[in-house]
Amino acid sequence: MSAQTPAAGLPETGRIPAGWRVVAGKELTDHVVSIRFLLLLIMLGALGVGAIYTVSGSIRDAAAQVSGARGIFLYLFTLNPPTSLSQSLPPFVQLVGFVGPLMGIAFGFSSINAERADGTLPRLLSQPIHRDDVINGKFVAGLAVIALILGVVILFISAIGIIRLGLVPAPDDILRLFAWYVLTVVYVGFWLALATLASVVFRNSGTAFFAVLAVWLILTFFGGTVIDAIGGFLAPAGQGASVAEQIRRAEVVQTLHRATPNRLFAEIGQVLLDPRVQTVDIQGILQLRSTNRSLATVLPIGQSLLIIWPQVVGLIALTSLCFAAAYVTFMRQEVRA
Amino acid sequence: MTADAVVIRTVGLSKVYPGHVAVRSLDLEVRRGEVFGLLGPNGAGKTTTILMLLGLTEPTGGTAEVLGLDPARNPLKVKRHVGYLPDNVGFYGSLSARENLRYTARLNGIPEKVADARIADLLRTVGLADAGERPVEAYSRGMRQRLGLADALVKSPSVIILDEPTTSIDPVGVVEVLDLVRSLAHDQGVSVLLSSHLLHQVQQVCDRIAIFVSGDVVAMGTVAELAARQQRGANVVVEIGLEGDPSVAVPIVAAVPGVASVDRDPQDHRLLVVTLAPEARATALSALLGAGIVPWLVRDRGMELDEIYQRYFAASAAASGTEEAA
């Protein structure tokens, strides 16, 4: 470089703050006062409360049978409604697996393209912040508001359980619930990252919304059929197939399913929120059956985490990958549309 | 920093996109307290130049230096001292004007108390003091533009870069905005780089201008310099506006010694375009007055930026021939 005029002549400005924090702070405020925040909070809260009311009778019975056993408190979130009720809500764990993505989509689909559409992006980027501060700050704010909604609803359900049903959580239950809560945020974070990616790629926030919604619909409703078909192709097990072939096919299908965040999250919930679950693998389940080991064995949380660790890592990896894609795409885009 | 210190300097700055040159080897110097105008039609490379100066786009060649810093390597420091009003500036519609400016202040690390006082001041300066608490979605485009100016000033910049600052502001507002820009430069020593395609305004406020045509600067200097450079030969071109049918006056003026040619203006038929020696001007006018014809307009052509610009643009378009259709 040629001899530069020293910057000493510039007025004193003080420290420039970490840009992502300022962005995150502003975004979080926007989210919390937004209508979608209120709607999602009410929706998830109502679903959660509805879910535990349908199972409260069963929980009382179960509590009476296995009084003092660990994990009863977690029934609040996992117990299936009695089969006598034809119209009832699935347990909260499943509800979150189903509705959680919508939360991630709601807080992500317009995060970048709205800045472009409103013409605020050039103005924002001309402030003394790095370009990635924008997407990082927005993602952190999205995660924070998701954590807030989930936290409030889980605490609300727990409070109902404690007060109305008299269930008192053991320390192990609290740890399990907390671990599951953190991983739920990661799971919803996957959808947030996917929606953020869509908001970077699609200039129109409506297009971005429907694109992510389509992915969600496919994974939630048609994914099973498609994956079963692929599994059947990879490991054919037609009529008259041997047991070994059928098992192999089931294993292939399970492995394929585990590429989806939905399945990873469901398995994490099964293991973390039920201390009696010792495996989610098909071979493991078969082995348990054949050796006729009692399902009443209760695992400490460390053991449960160990069982589910691959799924945990997989979920975190999927979320990170998705955010990385959004990040790189955003960094490569021109400031001007 | 001395009074004529250079605050923006580019050397051979260029930006080439695949199949399209946005800016071709730009050499530019803007001094302290100067209002510098980038002039040119849309797509001429003005905004790209501005984005390179802010470190928002990497140049493909050459160097830029803003306040002694390289914006590509030290963008945060540059952006801390350079206020920018983008073309078609936007704000967060659900937030009030004051909240929008507060966000900018926070991003610049300005303490809240200092920021609040400054924001109140700026809103008054741009004439939005009463609307400061209203959400920006209720603002007209002109109001947004003024708010954009206040936004660029929140960080107390040493340099401000204004991209089309007067579009969509009403005529009275334009005068106010340009007055503000001039006083920032001349009274507070802020350097101003402004881009525009509105020639009168640039002419009113800019100390120097550069004319951009499809990525090239075809002329640079003060308005007077550019006009002088365009004068051809000893003759001047005078425009004479007449009531009624100007053809009556043609033979009268043509008869005056020193007059080289008399034509009707092809665009405005009320005008006569007279090429004459400078000393023949008075004789030609008294000949008209003697014939009872009183002109409503007499002026030298070529002193207005429109004309300078038109000629440069025409010359440049002709030079590049069929290559550039735009």
Short overview:
The complex is a heterodimer of chains A (337) and B (326). Chain A is an all-alpha fold and 337 residues long. Chain A is built from 13 helices and no strands.
Written overview of the protein:
The complex is a heterodimer of chains A (337) and B (326). Chain A is mainly α. In chain A, 71% of the residues lie in helices and 0% in strands. Chain A has one domain (18-332). The longest helix of chain A is centred in the middle third of the chain and has 34 residues, at 131-164. The two termini of chain A are 32 Å apart. Mean pLDDT of chain A is 84; it is low at 1-8. Chain B is of the alpha/beta class and 326 residues long. A six-stranded mixed sheet of chain B has the order 5-6-7-3-8-9, with helices on both faces. In chain B, strands 11-12-10-13 form a four-stranded antiparallel sheet. The radius of gyration of chain B is 24 Å and the shape is elongated. The two termini of chain B are 42 Å apart. The interface between A and B is large, with 35 and 44 residues.
Indicate the percent of residues in helices of chain B.
Answer: 25-40%
- CATH superfamily descriptor of the largest domain in chain B: P-loop containing nucleotide triphosphate hydrolases
- β-strand number of chain A: 0
Mean pLDDT of chain A: 84
| Bulk shape of chain A | globular
CATH architecture of the largest domain in chain B: 3-Layer(aba) Sandwich
CATH class of the largest domain in chain B: Alpha Beta
Number of helices of chain A: 13
Instruction: Give a short account of the largest sheet of chain B.
Output: 6 strands, mixed
What's the story with the biggest beta sheet of chain A?
none
Oligomer: heterodimer
Largest interface: A-B, 35 and 44 residues
Radius of gyration of chain B: 24 Å
